[in-house]
Amino acid sequence: MKQIVVAVVLLTAVGIFAIPSRACDYVVGDVNGNGYFTGMDVVYAVNIFSGGPPPPYSCECPPGSGNVWFVAGDVNASCTFSGLDVTYMVRFFKGGNAPIPCPSCPPTPLLKSKMEVEAK
Ligand SMILES: [Ca+2]
Question: From ligand 1's centre to the CA of 77, what distance in Å?
């Protein structure tokens, strides 16, 4: 009986650690996956819609939905990655509003500020 209890406890512990809850870990606008949102991400995004390689990072969003997509490319909080995001990116680099992540899966770490991005 003691062995069964120990086995159940071990399996439960393994189950807890083997299935961690995964948050989406990205920087908003970081389409090319180098950890920063810069003009190169705009170029990468344009290339994607011209048949270029897909973004290196995708994530299930919302968690548990089964919907895996390029969350880092969503900068207008629409929870999709489309040409409208590219337009938003261009406006941001011309002084427009800061990128806004999909509210269903905000990134970890949090969005780098525009000041940090411009300092690069
Ligand atoms: Ca980047």
Answer: 18
Q: How far is the CA of 2 from the centre of ligand 1 (A)?
A: 54
* Cβ proximity of 61 and 85 under 8 Å: no
pTM of the model: 0.72
pLDDT for the residue 73? 97
Residue at 56 is within a domain: yes
Structural domain boundaries, residue 84:
22-119
Rounded distance from Cα 103 to ligand 1 centre (Å): 20
In a domain, 111, yes or no: yes
Q: Which long-range contacts (CB under 8 A, 24 or more apart) does 74-82 make?
A: 74/28, 74/101, 74/102, 75/28, 75/29, 75/99, 75/100, 75/101, 76/100, 77/101, 77/102, 77/103, 78/102, 79/103, 79/104, 81/55
Of the listed ranges 38-42, 102-106, 112-116, the least confidently predicted one is 112-116
% of the chain residues with pLDDT over 70: 72
Cα(97) to ligand 1 centroid in Å equals 18
